[in-house]
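Input chain follows. Return C-alpha cells only.
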Amino acid sequence: MPGILQLGIPKGSLQESTAAVFKKAGYNIRFSSRSYFPAIDDPEISCMLIRAQEMSRYVENGVLDCGLTGSDWVEENGSDVVQVAELQYAKQSFNRVRWVLAVPKDSAIRKPEDLQHKRISTEVVNLTRRYLEQKNIKAEVTFSWGATEIKPPYLADAIVEITETGSSLRANNLRIIDEIMASTTCLIANKKSWTAKTKKDKMQNLVMLLKGAITAEHYVGLKLNCSAADKKKILELLPALHQPTVSPLTDTGWYSVEVITREEKIRELIPRLKQAGAQGLIEYPLNKIIL
C-alpha cells in the first residue's frame, strides 16, 4: 500500500520481546495465532511476521520497507540494506547475544586450531566459513536445522551456536572455546524506501521512540522531600542522568527533589537518603527517555 510503512516483526524468539519494547514506545501490537499480519494501532504502519533469519532478504528485495532482525543475520545473508539503528534487546534481556564456538566438555579440542579437518554444525554456515578462513582452518561446516546443542559428539565435533546467557550450552555439557561475533537487534531498511522522505521520517521517529523505551528500562525516577538543613548532604548522595531538579515547597525551608537514576543503584540509595533526612520518597518506572 503506497504511503504505508511495511514493517517486518521477527517471528519466534524475538516476537514477544519486540512487542514489549513497542508497547513501551507507545505502539500496541496484537498477534493472532492464525495470521502472519499482526495488528498495530498506527494506521501508517502495516506489520508482517517474518523469521529473523529471513528478514534481511525481504527488506533487501522491497517486500518490506524495514524490519527488525539481528545484525548477525544481515551478515550471514550478505544483504544489501541500510542498517538504520541498533536496538539493544534480546529474548531474555537487554544484552547482546553471541555466536560462539563450542565443544563437549570432555573433548580434546581446546582451541579453534584443533578443529582442522573436523566437523562443525551450525545455522550460520557463511559466518562460520568466513571465521575459519580468517584463521586458516579447514573444516567441514554443515547446516543445522535446530537442536544444534545435541549434535556433538556423534553428529559433529563442534558447533557454532547463539547464546544469551550460556545456560543452554552448560545444560548440554558444552564449553565455549571462542566467540565468532556479537550481535544485537537492529532496524534495517530497504535502500529505495530509505530515500522516500515520508517513510524515512517515519522510521527515524520509530527508532527514536524505541531507543527511548530501551534506555528507560535501565532507569527509574525518584522524588523526595527534604529540609533546607539536609538538602546539601542529600544532593551529594544523588547520582543523576544530568542534575537533580530542586524546587521549593510552600512550606518554608523545605524542598522537593527529583532525579532520574540507574535502577540497580536504587536499593542502596534509598536507605542512605532516608538516613540523611529525606522524606516522602517515591520511586516510579519510566516508559521512555529521549536523550
